[in-house]
Amino acid sequence: MNTETGKSILVIANCRLGDSLVMIPSLQALRKHFGDGTYIVLVSEAGGGGFVGAKEILQGRGLVDEFVPMDCSGSWLSRAWKRLRLFMVLRQRRWDLGIVLMPPYPPLTMRLVKRFRLYLRASGCRKILAPELIMPMTRNASGELERMDSVVDAMLALLTPLGIPAPVAGDADFALPKSVDHFPANIPAGRYLAVAPAANMRAKCWPVKYYSAVLQKLRQAYPEMTPIIFGGENEREICVTLNEGIDGIVMIGRPLLEVEAVMRRCELYLGNDTGVMHLAASVGIRCLVIFSLRLSPGMWEPYGKGHCVMMAKGIDCSGCLAETCPKPHHPCMEKISPEEVWEKLSQMLQDA
User: Fold this and answer.
1) Which of 25, 193, 262, 299 has a Cα-to-Cα distance from 271 of 20 to 30 A?
2) Which strands form 225-231's sheet, in the order they lie side by side?
């Protein structure tokens, strides 16, 4: 499609798996608002190195027309030069609108927002839309972190200056448009529970021994239900260790379309706050998620109805933003017992 016709929109964002998925309602809203002829280009860090990029998950879904990778390798000076060169190339095209499409929450900083605004300005965008401020985490009178809106709703709210009405919180369409079915031929028909015991930050991880205790109970109570354990190549050890004595199916480093096809056939998701959790929610799977308290409740929880989020209470280091917990026993995760999680999981299975 020629970008000289219709609205041409340049979007810049951090786009790993979860980041890409939570953008779906915003991308749909832009298409609906600007109508036929809209051409959306997404600039983001390319996938690889153990993480999934936006192109791998969003291509062919009718949401983004073109993906432009941003090379983030090399020294600081090298990265700056590569990005400047990229946006000078983009400047040769006409852009009606440039958007920094990122939730205005920590750990995002205004420094990063200003840098991305500069990139959009360097690309020649006629109009630029970006977060004006970062919403701080707040606490109630008891010192507990207060609940904040989902990142999905927060990004939709960013689009209201364009005349796009923000939906009622929690009511946006979060469904991932279907792609070609890549279900593996070697997985037989049956009842499946999706399990994701790892995450991109150690602070988000519930202990593997706790997952093992829950899955042992699952196998005893529901022998016909097989756990499918998902993880990337860098999470192989965790996934293989968890499967010992469980006799589940381990899917490590599999293509994302294959993971999606398998996920669509699972009954529930059990796991940490990770991109696979957002994938489960986006294909209509109810999620039981064990959350750390590094961020406020609500922000990155699975979007939609029917999910269950388990978080500890009374943790004095909540809101720490730590990627690795500095405390010896990771209190906000280890305080949640396997018995509590199994009780909730069995209840959700019965409700299903």
Assistant:
1) 25
2) 249-252, 225-231, 191-196, 268-272, 286-290, 308-310
pTM of the model as a whole = 0.94
Strand partners, 100: 12
Q: What would the two tokens of residue 224 be?
A: 């016909």
Rounded to an integer, what is the distance from CA 106 to the centroid of its chain?
15
Secondary element (H or E) of residue 287? strand 286-290
C-alpha pair distances (Å), 306 with each of 142, 148, 283, 285, 303: 28, 18, 13, 9, 9
pLDDT, tens digit, 9 for 90 and up, residues 5-30: 469 999 999 888 999 999 999 999 99
> Residue 300: which of 316, 315, 321 has the closest Cα?
321
The helix (H) or strand (E) run that includes residue 196 is strand 191-196
For the segment 136-156, the average pLDDT, to the nearest whole number, is: 94
Query: What class, spelled out in words, does domain 8-162 have in CATH?
Result: alpha beta
Beta-strand pair 191-196/225-231: parallel
Pick the CATH number of 192-351 from 4.10.280.10, 3.40.50.80, 3.40.50.970, 3.40.50.2000: 3.40.50.2000
Q: Which of the 8 DSSP states describes residue 161?
A: G
Q: Are strands 66-70 and 97-100 parallel, antiparallel or unpaired?
A: unpaired
Nearest in space to 291 (alpha carbons), one of 204, 201, 220: 204
Residue ranges of the domains in the chain? 8-162, 192-351
Per the rule left: phi > 0, alpha: psi between -120 and 50, beta: everything else, 173 is beta
**N- to C-terminal Cα distance for the chain?**
45
Mean pLDDT of the 45-69 span: 85
